[in-house]
Amino acid sequence: VLVKNWPTSGKTTAVIILYWVVTIPLCMFITINRFWGSFFLYVTGIVVFVGVQVAAAGVILWAVINRRRILEGVERISGGDLEYAIGDEGMFADDRRLVEAINNIGAGFQDAVDTAVKSERMKADLITNVSHDIKTPLTSIINYVDLMKRENIEDETLKRYLEVLDQKSQRLKNLTEDLVEASRASSGNISLQLERINF
């Protein structure tokens, strides 16, 4: 439990020291038995030494493979695949903690994206519905104003009122159309047409 709570640098240092503690005396044991001791102990020492080297190489190779898996997972998540989760099977404790943190980041990003998409969709639907609800009575107002202007109205005050009504209703119509266009532009549902202009 004490070693489990050590930082990664502390664990790495402990493994290196343990490797030296095993290999240096082993090398001395092999050398002593080569020149002054038993041939059997000499061969046994070499076999144990080779076994230690193979085990150390296996641990290093496994750590490299796990780090490669983590890197590939990070690249996939950073590339936009927010639903991808890195598997932590067979990984060392520190690598498992790192994988868990990365997967949590990916899940957090996915939740944020889902919330933002839902919010944008609700906003676009609200704008569309409100614009539609405004357009229906507005069209009626514009049509009735147009019909009233065709009547022979002699009163100048009424004519001015009709003119103001006509201007304001047309202005409101333009604002409603601009609102719909702005909503489409912000949601990416509009195609831009680039043109040269005379500045």
General description of the model:
Helices cover 79% and strands 0% of the residues. The chain has 199 residues and is mainly α. Helix 1 (8-35) packs antiparallel against helix 2, helix 2 (39-78) packs parallel to helix 3 and helix 3 (93-150) runs antiparallel to helix 4. The protein is rod-shaped and about 130 Å long. The mean pLDDT is 81.
Q: How does the major sheet shape up?
A: none
Number of helices: 4
Helix content: over 70%
What gyration radius follows from the Cα positions, in whole Å? 38 Å
Could you report the average pLDDT, rounded to the nearest whole number?
A: 81
Order of helices and strands: HHHH
Span of the ends, CA to CA: 72 Å
The number of distinct β-strands equals 0
Percent of residues in β-strands: under 5%
Q: Which stretches of 5+ consecutive residues score pLDDT under 50?
A: none
Global structural class: mainly alpha
So what's the overall shape?
rod-shaped
